[in-house]
Amino acid sequence: MESREWGVGNGGKKSFSPFPTPHSLLSTPVSVMNYDVIIIGAGPAGSTASTLLARAGLRALLLEKSRFPREKLCGEFITPECLNVFDRLGAHERMFDAGAKTINQWMLFAPNGRGVRVPMEWIADGHSHAIGISRARMDLILLDCAREAGVDVRESFHVSPRLRRENGVGIIEGRTDGAVIERFSAPIVIDASGRNGVFSNPINRAGGAAQQPSQFKGSRLFGCKVHLRAIEGMRGLGELFFFRDGYGGMSDVENGRTNLCFITTEATLREAKGDREKLLDLTMRSNPAARRRLRNAVIDGEWLGTGPVTYGRRRPIPGVISIGDAGAFIDPFTGSGILLALSSGELVANVICRSFVEGVSDVDAIAKRYDQLHRARFGWRFLACALLRAVAFNSTARNAMVSALTRYQPLMKLIALSTRQRITPYSASLPQSR
Ligand SMILES: Cc1cc2nc3c(=O)[nH]c(=O)nc-3n(C[C@H](O)[C@H](O)[C@H](O)COP(=O)(O)OP(=O)(O)OC[C@H]3O[C@@H](n4cnc5c(N)ncnc54)[C@H](O)[C@@H]3O)c2cc1C
After folding, report:
1. Ligand 1 center from residue 91 Cα (angstroms)
2. Residue 177 reports pLDDT greater than 90
3. Region for 87 from its dihedrals, namely left if φ exceeds 0, alpha if ψ lies in -120 to 50, beta otherwise
4. pLDDT tens digit string along 359-410?
5. Residue 338 CB less than 6 A away from ligand 1
6. Could you tell me the domains of the chain?
7. Which of 92, 195, 363, 395 has the fewest CB atoms within 10 Å distance of its CB?
8. Measured between alpha carbons, how far is 5 from 359 in angstroms, rounded to an integer?
9. Residue 43 Cα, ligand 1 centroid: separation in angstroms?
10. Within a 13 Å sphere around the CA of 152, how many CA atoms are in the beta-carbon half?
11. Would you say the CB of residue 132 lies under 6 angstroms from ligand 1?
12. Which residue has its alpha carbon closest to ligand 1 atom 37?
């Protein structure tokens, strides 16, 4: 393979780069392809970051191990705040063209089936509704935005967890199914590869290594998802049901389907012994309100499972900026994961461009700036969600809270608002030429 200097990705635009020609820095084989920035993972974080960086004139490579469209385990409840980012990316209309459903109301149900409505305006940030759309569709639309912005996209490319740095340039490698190893280099490497980030490890609250599985004794959490048909009365609703040791959500997505997604413990999964009907009885159908909804439900799609799910910040290896879930994973029941992924994509693009303009091109210095801003902007949200999770998984505290919430609307508003804050849009731009 020949050594190439890439500019094609920018659709012929004159590109700005604060770096000397990258391959002149390398003492690696000529087969390495050079970019200004490499992004690993084409979820909402990676696609957003790469779109904005390419629009700013950087030569961006986006590496994704799957081939899109691909299903993804997720509640597929896209909060109103996300629509602002879709507007900025030019993706909003496309979501509706692809059949996204409008969700105007959000309901929470205690394990005894008692429900409480959360007005969507409380979490609106401009748009008065949330949307439901499958991750297969949504992620494909965001990836298309990246392609159109001039990002070089490689699907079915699995990045290996090995990073070499030479003279300030990161060299990563991976392979397409069954194919030979390929290498790519860039001064900036962004890990957007999700919860099990290829270059990022979970850290516990004390800042040390993550706990060992033996410490959990069946309490580890796992997620399941399936698409259903023939759910009655869902129109315009997003619903969250709590049960003995977990919670699950339902909301409509495109093509007349409803997404069902829940989180439960390893102990419950063991008890179900692989029998999905029994698993539904032990989890969602143990909540009377969910049982009513699921009465005539027909499964329409594959069951997906994931876990164990660990929350909180991840520690990237030196030379890498971790964004989205790879940087920090927030409890899904407040529906903030996709918003944080999109926002972290915008934030990292802004920080990189601003750093370049200020003459800072060291990736670790940029990672530090990004991390500080991310903590300042989203730290409170992580804390609030961690506290709510502690309550949600303690039956006494949870029942007391749900009963208080059904009586005191101001308390519920306070709690809903504690998991949100206004998101300032971040722009990403560079001088037009060097
Ligand atoms: C049970 C559950 C329910 C949820 N429900 C909701 C919800 O309703 N609403 C909400 O807002 N959030 C929800 N979330 C959270 C949301 O799914 C995530 O926060 C969001 O997907 C994060 O986006 P991301 O781009 O950081 O990572 P991801 O979406 O995980 O994307 C990472 C990408 O990296 C790719 N990748 C991984 N490894 C490699 C590799 N080695 N090489 C190349 N590519 C790689 C993956 O294939 C993937 O496409 C839920 C999460 C869970 C677990």
Report:
1. 18
2. no
3. alpha
4. 999 999 999 999 999 999 888 878 887 777 777 777 777 777 766 776 666 6
5. yes
6. 8-72+139-206+310-392 (3.50.50.60), 99-132+211-306 (3.30.9.100)
7. 395
8. 22
9. 6
10. 19
11. no
12. 193
Virtual torsion, Cα 391, 395, 397, 400, nearest 10 deg: 130
H/E stretch holding 189: strand 188-191
Ligand 1 mean position, distance from CA 213 (Å): 22
Distances, alpha carbon 171 to alpha carbons 1, 8, 20, 31, in Å: 16, 20, 16, 11
Q: What is the pLDDT of residues 48-73, one digit of tens each?
A: 999 999 999 999 999 999 999 999 99
Number of neighbouring beta carbons within 10 Å of residue 372: 11
Burial class for 376, CB neighbours closer than 10 Å (0-12, 13-18, 19+): exposed
Could you tell me how far CA 92 lies from the centroid of its own chain? 17
Of all helices (H) and strands (E), which one includes residue 131?
A: strand 130-132
**Cβ–ligand 1 contact at 238 (below 6 Å):** no
Pocket probe for ligand 1: among 325, 344, 378, 385, the residue whose CB has the most ligand atoms within 8 Å is: 325
pTM, 2 dp: 0.88
Query: For residue range 244-260, what is the model confidence (pLDDT) as tens digits?
Result: 889 999 999 999 999 99
pLDDT digits (tens, 9 = 90+) for 206-224: 444 444 444 456 789 999 9
| CB distance 193 to ligand 1 below 6 Å | yes
User: Which atom of ligand 1 approaches the CA of 249 most closely?
Assistant: 8
Q: How many CB atoms lie within 10 A of CB 74?
A: 23
